[in-house]
Design brief:
single chain, Helicase, Ruva Protein, domain 3, Rossmann fold, 2 domains, seven-stranded mixed sheet
């Protein structure tokens, strides 16, 4: 079987098993299995696959059909134009989170001189690293309760050569961090327990997905902590689900002078921004 024939069959199979992006999934998995770029699949579309290559690829497709995220199967994911190592110990970077990073970078670039950022619940480190990469004046302190997640983040920090400006600490919310910050960013768990989610989402760490109080508990606790840790003019950016915007807005009103909610690429309320 040739590359083009295998892609057609695997695309059809993944579509029947519920993939939202069957062709892309098939291409990413095959490129990974063959050690090629996606472009090479079409430059060598008539290349025949060996039985060993076919067997390995069928295994990847079968796992994807059962809901395994493509990023876990290939071991990495692009986010904000940067490549990140991804393992089952961390959430897969989500394009919706780029709204938060883009706003964080814009705020940092407006500041003169050094700019201190806290990234709470860093996971793979994608938020902290992307901010440091695109805002050269920013130094980022990133926390997570998971030692396994921080190991992944540390490898990503090293991969992008940002060890001098991205610092990792283990602990709950901002507890392990010292000093005040110009900006606090957070992509904390915000899904209510019992929520029906796609298999590729539930395959990710439950501790990074679900929170009490209908999903709002950790974000509300962070909003209570942050005011004493912000420099004058400081801000907080927190990713959330549209279903908890009202509840979180009430907490924000108690602690901040003003706030707004930014929408993601699909028009859904996604990122809370609050200020004094």
């Amino acid at each position: 079987m040739t590359i083009v024939e295998v892609l057609k069959l695997s695309t059809d199979y993944l579509q029947k098993h519920g993939s939202d992006s069957p062709r892309l999934d098939a291409e990413l998995l095959l490129a990974h299995g063959l050690g090629m770029r996606r472009l090479d699949l079409y430059l060598k579309f008539d290349r025949a696959l060996s039985e060993v290559e076919l067997t390995a690829y069928r295994g990847l497709v079968a796992q994807r059909a059962k809901g395994a995220p493509v990023a876990y199967l290939v071991g990495h994911k692009e986010f904000m134009g940067l490549d990140f190592e991804v393992t089952p110990e961390v959430l897969v970077p989500n394009p919706d989170t780029e709204v938060l990073v883009q706003r964080a970078v814009a705020i940092a670039r407006e500041s003169e001189g050094g700019f201190r950022v806290a990234d709470v619940g860093t996971g793979s480190g994608c938020i902290a690293i992307a901010i440091a990469h695109y805002a050269p004046n920013a130094s980022v302190w990133a926390t997570d309760v998971s030692g396994e997640a921080l190991s992944v983040a540390a490898r990503n920090v090293a991969k992008h050569g940002l060890g001098a400006r991205v610092h990792l600490e283990r602990g709950d919310l901002m507890q392990p961090l010292a000093g005040e910050f110009n900006l606090v960013c957070a992509n904390l768990p915000y899904v209510a327990a019992g929520t029906t989610l796609p298999a590729e989402v539930t395959a990710q760490p439950a501790g990074a997905l679900y929170a009490d109080s209908g999903g709002a508990a950790l974000i509300e606790r962070l909003l209570d902590e942050v005011p004493t840790r912000l420099r004058p003019g400081g801000r907080v950016l927190a990713e959330l689900d549209p279903s908890i915007v009202q509840a979180v807005s009430q907490s924000t009103g108690r602690n901040f002078a003003g706030h707004r909610v930014h929408r993601d690429m699909n028009g859904r309320e996604r990122v809370l921004e609050a200020w004094f």
